[in-house]
Amino acid sequence: MSDTDRLYIGCPVQHARQFIAGKWQIGILWNLSNQSMGFSEIKSKLPGLSDKILMQELDFFVQKKIIHRNAFEFPSAKTEYALSSIGQSLIPVINSIVEWGYLFLQDEQVNKEMSLTPVSAIEAIENSVAERE
Fold first, then answer.
1. pLDDT of 57 strictly over 50
2. Is 80 helix (H, G, I), strand (E, B) or coil?
3. Which residues are within 8 A (CB) of 43 and not within 5 positions of it... i.e. 6 or more apart?
4. How far apart are CA 124 and CA 75, in angstroms?
5. SS (H, E, C) 42-72
6. Highest mean pLDDT among 58-62, 121-125, 129-133
7. Which residues 6+ apart lie within 8 Å of 118 measured at CB?
8. Domains (ranges, CATH) in the chain?
C-alpha cells in the first residue's frame, strides 16, 4: 500500500469515488437505473466501450454488491445485470452530476468525449427540466 493510499483510508469521498470516477462507471450505472439488462444491451448503450472493460466494471460492481448478476438457464442461457439497493442509492448522486454537467455544458464547446453521454441521460434531464417549467 502506497503512502497516498494510506492517507485516504476511511475517507468517504475516496470510497464513493471508486464507484463513479471511472470513464464508464456512471454510464453503466445510469443505464441500469430503470431496468435490468444483458451484457450486449449495456454495451450497445455505450459506444466505444470494449467487452473487456465492460466485463471488468461489471465484475467490480458485482463484487462490491452495487450490481446483481442474474444467470438464467431456462428457456435459454442468459445473464442479466440489475442494480442492487446500494446501486440504486447511487442514482440520485449520478443524477445530480448529470444535471449539473448538462446545465453548464451549454456554456462549453462540445467535444467528442462530451458527446458520448448516454442518450437516455440527456432525455431524462430534458424531461426533468421541462417538468419544472
1. yes
2. strand
3. 49, 51, 54
4. 34
5. HHHHCCCCCHHHHHHHHHHHHHCCCEEEEEE
6. 58-62
7. 27, 30, 31, 45, 46
8. 23-132 (1.10.10.10)
